[in-house]
Design goal:
The complex is a heterodimer of chains A (196) and B (275). By secondary structure, chain A is α+β, with helices and mostly antiparallel strands. Chain A is built from 7 helices and 6 strands. The chains are: A alpha+beta (196), B mainly alpha (275).
Chain lengths: 196, 275
């Protein structure tokens, strides 16, 4: 393959144009200001998008189908990376169908999701909206407390009202998934997440 | 005669690609294999696309030790078989060939300037280098954009597992829209833009199966035939026997089947080995 000087300069210009186009694409800001809820064992967010190869293995091995793929609303660099939606499925890494291991982290080919001690993992924190919570409205409901796998993360007062303890919550989303209120009184936010 | 020959080859290619789609759809449901072409795992045995591995390494400035062997295994297959994957397995490439057969206008058939073909052959290396430099310089690794089969299979797995359609379909439609602007014979994405395809062809140093034109039989110079270059979806100037350009060959056998004087042989070994 012979290249003349003129063609070489053209090639350089092509490469520079492609590079600046990619730079422009990477500068598109994320429309959603909130951070993404990552599966348990995820590395720090600054490394996650670069380590994830978007193979989709975590989504396929999840026994509760809690993992969705991010879309353009989560930022151009995060497209197709895994995120957790507790309204679709609860993450049972702490107790339950996940066989006491984090299957997504176990199968992840890169180090985007790493197997970690389940005591040290925190996906996020659940927030209660008292206006929608059945117990606070005046009906009898302690579903969240019954479903919670973590001891003392949810306590029930003598008036049968649930109290959420943020420091104990692991963010598995079981309470969110089973919350009977319509719309759900609980939301899982990535605040206070503990990552490898 | 030629018509039936090319029809048979086309049919076999469509079948192999469909079987790959079937495998990637059914195997994760049955629990035999998980993943897409970006990376896949049979439980303890993992394979990863070398381009993804290079992109991850460049953007994080680290080397993932556990992935060196899986990446090298795939790279070794590519060294021997080159872009065989693009011609026989990649569903996007084969769909592009079919979609372009529908949209192609008769007046556009035929070879334009041969220099333009040569120019396109070089341009793709600039694009691949830009993609790698983007990973290295400003940590922009967006492998979802650069691996069309990955995008295709992810669309399928997202639908089978969650019943949802994600961002992948947008990327896929973008690729097909780009190809509508293809001037000559389709697969513009594959033969000019696809960084994965360029990466594969750059790796295919040995490239076992390749077309070779017998210059004595070829009627290009007398009759300006160029049937092979006209039908080549990779836009390879086949009659020139250019080593660099031949690395792009996706082994679709169209040139071989379309040659009116049977001047093209699919060489299994390079001359290096036969001498």
């Amino acid at each position: 393959m012979r290249i003349t000087r003129r063609q070489f300069i053209k090639l350089l210009a092509e490469g520079a144009a492609a590079l600046s186009a990619l730079k422009l694409v990477s500068l598109i800001p994320s429309p959603s200001p909130t951070a993404i809820l990552r599966p348990p064992g995820a590395v720090k967010e600054e490394y996650f998008n670069r380590l994830c190869v978007r193979c989709g293995i975590c989504l396929e091995v999840c026994p509760t189908k809690a993992i969705l793929l991010s879309d353009f609303n989560d930022g151009i660099e995060a497209v197709d990376t895994p995120k957790i939606d507790p309204t679709v499925g609860p993450c049972e890494f702490f107790r339950g169908r996940c066989e006491e291991v984090m299957r997504c982290s176990k199968f992840c080919p890169t180090e985007a999701l790493q197997l970690a001690d389940k005591e040290k993992v925190k996906i996020g924190t659940v927030e209660l909206n008292p206006d929608k919570c059945l117990a606070y409205i005046g009906k009898e409901c302690v579903v969240c407390d019954e479903m919670c796998p973590v001891p003392e993360a949810i306590t029930i007062t003598s008036d049968l009202l649930p109290i959420f303890h943020d420091e104990k919550c692991v963010g598995c989303g079981l309470c969110v998934y089973y919350c009977p209120a319509e719309p759900k009184a609980l939301t899982l936010r990535p605040d206070g997440a503990k990552r490898a | 005669m030629e018509k039936t020959k090319i029809g048979k080859i086309e049919a076999i290619r469509a079948v192999t690609a469909s079987l790959a789609v079937l495998f990637f759809t059914a195997a994760p449901v049955l629990g035999l294999m998980y993943g897409t072409t970006c990376a896949l795992t049979f439980g303890s045995f993992t394979l990863i696309s070398p381009l993804e591995l290079v992109l991850v390494s460049l953007s994080t400035k680290t080397m993932l030790v556990s992935l060196i062997v899986p990446g090298l295994v795939v790279a070794l297959i590519i060294v021997f078989f080159g872009r065989f994957f693009c011609g026989w397995i990649c569903p996007v490439g084969i769909l592009l060939e079919y979609s372009h057969a529908i949209t192609e206008r008769k007046s556009m058939k035929g070879v334009g300037s041969l220099d333009w073909i040569g120019w396109k052959n070089r341009e793709r290396y600039a694009i691949l280098l830009a993609v790698l430099a983007a990973g290295l310089m400003f940590d922009f690794a967006a492998p979802y954009l650069f691996s069309p089969p990955g995008v295709f299979y992810r669309t399928i797995l997202y639908f089978t597992f969650q019943g949802a359609i994600g961002a992948d379909l947008t990327v896929l439609l973008l690729i097909f829209t780009l190809d509508l602007f293809a001037v000559h014979y389709g697969r513009t994405w594959c033969n000019t833009l696809c960084p994965l395809g360029t990466f594969i062809s750059t790796l295919s140093i040995i490239n076992l199966v390749r077309p070779k034109v017998d210059q004595e039989k070829c009627i290009d110079f007398d009759l300006n035939c160029l049937n092979c270059e006209r039908t080549c979806p990779m836009r390879i100037p086949i009659t020139r026997n250019d080593k660099w350009a031949i690395m792009e060959c996706n082994k679709c056998l169209k040139c071989w089947a379309n040659c009116p004087v049977k001047a093209i042989k699919m060489e299994v070994f390079d001359q290096r080995f036969s001498k």
